[in-house]
Amino acid sequence: xxxxxxxxxxxxxxxxxxxxxxxxxxxxxxxxxxxxxxxxxxxxxxxxxxxxxxxxxxxxxxxxxxxxxxxxxxxxxxxxxxxxxxxxxxxxxxxxxxxxxxxxxxxxxxxxxxxxxxxxxxxxxxxxxxxxxxxxxxxxxxxxxxxxxxxxxxxxxxxxxxxxxxxxxxxxxxxxxxxxxxxxxxxxxxxxxxxxxxxxxxxxxxxxxxxxxxxxxxxxxxxxxxxxxxxxxxxxxxxxxxxxxxxxxxxxxxxxxxxxxxxxxxxxxxxxxxxxxxxxxxxxxxxxxxxxxxxxxxxxxxxxxxxxxxxxxxxxxxxxxxxxxxxxxxxxxxxxxxxxxxxxxxxxxxxxxxxxxxxxxxxxxxxxxxxxxxxxxxxxxxxxxxxxxxxxxxxxxxxxxxxxxxxxxxxxxxxxxxxxxxxxxxxxxxxxxxxxxxxxxxxxxxxxxxxx
Length: 452
Ligand code: ADP
Ligand code: ASP
Ligand code: MG
Prior knowledge:
This protein is of the alpha/beta class. It is 42% helix and 21% strand. Helix 4 runs antiparallel to helix 6. The longest helix has 25 residues. The two termini are 38 Å apart. Aspartic acid binds next to helix 8. Adenosine-5'-diphosphate binds next to loops.
């Protein structure tokens, strides 16, 4: 059996959901059972819900309530279209009750004027929780025996609200009890991605784009033979299509390459997606809902050593570079430990590190604590920061054994001022740090050199 995860644009409206239904039907006919279905919120809904919470928390209740009504209308309209029959009453009643509750939360937040991360998760999770109900009913209406599974009972996480980490053992047990048992009973389990709950039952979310991660967790939990990520592009592309006009489809990728590309900005895959798949060695396939006949991108454990010299490019914007210079003449041992302890204290991940005799430069993506971090670092070092920087990352298994590829990457970028260059021990990627303004040009140069 397979897991099929459908992203926001693949469930955006009734016609998208009808395509989903046919994709599910085909998988079921082919495999004789399943599949397990994981859905995102309809596209734009998570943003809208976060907007509702923000407006409510700053006492713009009217604005927030107007947005709630728009969301209510969008869901009820889709429900009428997809489930016109007798089942509509129950579905519409459920949606209506949920949006009434959301409106009540908005009024309460207007009084409190404060939105805690825990409340934010309750609001953000609604997109997936409601859409999974809607898709379940639509599948049933189309003659497929589907059953809604509450993601809050299937994905068990810690309490790091808005970016919670799943607890694997508990989650696997919960998934077997919920999702697997539904498949074994001959039905199609449908659950919302992105959402989980703590062991105490508080709703959590896995971070933006986290439905991919849910899909992979379900795949690992039920030991699926394949995890399919259905989205709005043909697969993993050689570069971000929003930067490069006609990137190539990457037909095959290794887990390691996919993890690097996702971590360094290829939005088509949430960076944590690969972990559960690696653990159980389950292939991941990225497919296009608009063109289901395509072959997509297949991600497996095998290194992809026969294709192009590089496998793909990825980039991250809005990166901050922090330069830390030891105030002693030389970098005494213990210096790096003290530096990284500060980042650990603020739970801020460092992406790229380069060092010289007396200084260390790092990049961070999460800017929330940069000021506090620099403040603490300046107790024992000179610190300066630079914003509006970007990371550009070239990935490929062949970089490991063919050092001339890395040399070519750097020489292609010779006119671009590079702030840092880094190649890690895995030697599967080479990453450069540059000014954000230089990113499109640098990306273009690299793409022409390696992919045209
Ligand atoms: P979904 O809602 O299905 O999860 P996302 O918007 O999260 O879809 O991810 C798909 C988008 O990722 C694509 O539409 C594309 O713009 C973007 N993207 C960025 N880099 C890449 C890449 N290397 N390959 C494919 N898509 C990419
Ligand atoms: N709906 C969530 C988001 O927009 C999760 C996802 O779609 O993967 O971030
Ligand atoms: Mg996504």
